[in-house]
Recover the amino acids of this structure.
């Protein structure tokens, strides 16, 4: 839902920007069925500078507010740990100096709430364009299977 944007973890996040659009779509979707899970894939843009020390706490607060707003207190959430470091793929790419720090915070976060699980994108194929890293089509399909498998273990 963030799509290449650094998350502004301020309180404004809950009334503005991408979060508000995600929430509006989720509330609209409930007219057509039951939301079974939130899949969260974000973090690349937050690795350019060292992530805020409260990154995971702020992320968990966002997840809790989302659950409250859509009225599903135990909604499973699957988030994606960042995959291959762009610098490892292209040593000239220094756009993400804190990639490993973010991966470590994400791994720690997976231990904090049984309703939240993590899948890693580390073993998926990527295409580096010199500025960023994108999943190949095959890797996106693999990641989709990982999400489905993870959700099955949560229910």
């Amino acid at each position: 839902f963030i799509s290449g944007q650094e998350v502004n973890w301020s309180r404004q996040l809950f009334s503005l920007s991408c979060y508000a659009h995600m929430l509006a779509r989720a509330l609209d979707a409930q007219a057509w069925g039951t939301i079974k899970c939130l899949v969260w894939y974000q973090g690349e843009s937050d690795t350019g500078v060292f992530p805020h020390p409260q990154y995971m706490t702020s992320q968990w607060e966002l997840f809790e507010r989302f659950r409250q707003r859509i009225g599903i207190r135990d909604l499973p959430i699957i988030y994606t740990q960042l995959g291959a470091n762009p610098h490892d793929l292209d040593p000239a790419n220094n756009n993400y100096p804190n990639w490993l720090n973010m991966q470590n915070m994400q791994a720690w976060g997976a231990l904090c709430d049984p309703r939240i699980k993590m899948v890693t994108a580390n073993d998926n194929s990527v295409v580096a364009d010199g500025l960023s890293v994108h999943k190949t089509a095959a890797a996106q399909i693999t990641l989709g299977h990982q999400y489905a498998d993870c959700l099955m273990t949560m229910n």
Notes: The two ends are 24 Å apart (CA to CA).
